[in-house]
Write a structure and sequence with these properties.
Blueprint: H1 8-15, H2 19-27, H3 34-47, H4 52-59, E1 65-70, H5 76-89, E2 95-100, H6 107-115, E3 121-124, H7 130-139, E4 142-145, E5 155-158, H8 161-174, E6 180-183, H9 190-206, H10 221-232, E7 240-243, H11 246-258, E8 268-270, E9 287-289, H12 292-308, E10 317-320, E11 323-326, E12 336-337
Parallel strand pairs: 1-2, 1-3, 3-4, 4-5, 5-10, 6-7, 7-8
Antiparallel strand pairs: 9-11, 11-12
Helix pairs in contact: 1-2, 1-3, 3-4, 5-12, 6-7, 8-9, 10-11
């Protein structure tokens, strides 16, 4: 008869082993003889120390857990990623462990330590070094989210370049803007790098000279406010600001309205992501809609496939389509959405 209240000490007594041995079997770490391992697992199964599914996972040498590695957790983007990842992990009865690397000097070591405690890991692109990613991939299945994986490490990302080029072209051609700036740091994120590439490509295609460099800031709303202060107190003010994400764009919008500028008459502002608040601010934000939850859900599906069916382990780059959403902040009269891009 199962008893979910049994402790690790009681399981150790029932199996006739030490507490340390039960811990090693439960965590999948350290050396344990097959005989002791069998006794611990039989005690777990018989007495219900853990849920049955976890007992079976331990018997197969698994942890019943998946890992997520983020630079940080601020803002709606990461909230959406977590919800998407859990939407696949939880029905599969896997817990989700989250590691934030921001400001951690030992982040690579911590990621590798996580790899010893989970069955697979999803890593946001640009969060850890390629050598560490490759070492992690030797330990457990790994999928890179919002970036491309090194070597044979698979990835899931949204299409960035073509849609950002379409957005920029819309501002240059349809709205006649001639002095656009890009706000975001291409060195800090694979996604931002691709969006900067699309921004430049649209200028070249339109025969318009692009800015020499972006306004390199982080991706939070406060960074957008600071960028707006920098741009709007300059002698020559741009007539449009193309932001790497919605949070930054909302910060620029706050800064512009605070200085008495009219948006979009004096300054057009655009974002990327289509966070829920983008449609609620005034003026509503022109942006690019990307399937953030689906990115993480697909990453979880790929990891679970690799764990449960190693012969079908994924490889290569999965690219999900994005859509241009036109609203009042660029000068369009109402909310519009073009067809998706990417594959």
């Amino acid at each position: 008869m199962g008893n979910s209240r049994l402790t690790v000490r009681e399981i150790a007594r029932l199996a006739g082993v030490s507490v340390a041995t039960v811990s090693r079997v439960s965590n999948g770490t350290g050396q344990v003889s097959e005989e002791m391992r069998r006794r611990v697992l039989e005690a777990i199964e018989k007495h219900g120390y853990r849920p049955d599914h976890l007992g079976r996972a331990l018997a197969a040498g698994r942890h019943g857990a998946l890992g997520l590695v983020f630079p940080g957790l601020s803002g709606p983007y990461f909230t959406e990623l977590i919800q998407g990842f859990e939407s696949e992990a939880v029905p599969s009865r896997a817990s989700v462990h989250i590691l934030c690397t921001h400001l951690r000097s030992d982040s690579d070591a911590q990621v590798l330590e996580m790899g010893r405690r989970v069955d697979g890991v999803a890593v946001i692109g640009g969060t850890i070094s390629d050598p560490t990613l490759l070492r992690l991939a030797e330990m457990v299945p790994v999928v890179v989210v919002a970036g491309e994986g090194p070597g044979s490490v698979p990835s899931v990302r949204a299409e960035n370049t073509a849609t950002m080029a379409a957005l920029t072209r819309h501002l240059l051609i349809d709205h006649g803007r001639t002095d656009l700036v890009f706000v975001g740091n291409p060195e800090g994120s694979p996604d931002v790098s691709e969006r900067w590439t699309g921004f430049l490509a649209a200028h070249r295609a339109a025969g318009v000279t692009p800015p020499i460099a972006p306004v390199a800031v982080s991706l939070q709303q406060a960074d957008g406010v600071l960028a707006a202060e920098q741009l709007l107190r300059a002698t020559t003010r741009p007539d449009g600001v193309v932001c790497a994400n919605d949070e930054t764009a909302l910060g620029v919008l706050v800064g512009a309205l605070g200085r008495g500028l009219r948006v979009p008459q004096d300054l057009v502002i655009t974002g990327f992501d289509d966070a829920p608040i983008a449609a609620l601010v005034n003026p509503a934000l022109t942006t690019v809609r990307q399937p953030v939850r689906e990115l993480a859900a697909e990453a979880a599906r790929l990891i679970l496939t690799a764990v449960n069916e190693p012969e079908r382990a994924p490889s290569g780059d999965t690219v999900l389509p994005t859509e241009l959403v036109l609203r009042r902040s660029c000068g369009c009269p109402a909310d519009l959405m073009t067809g998706g891009t990417g594959t």
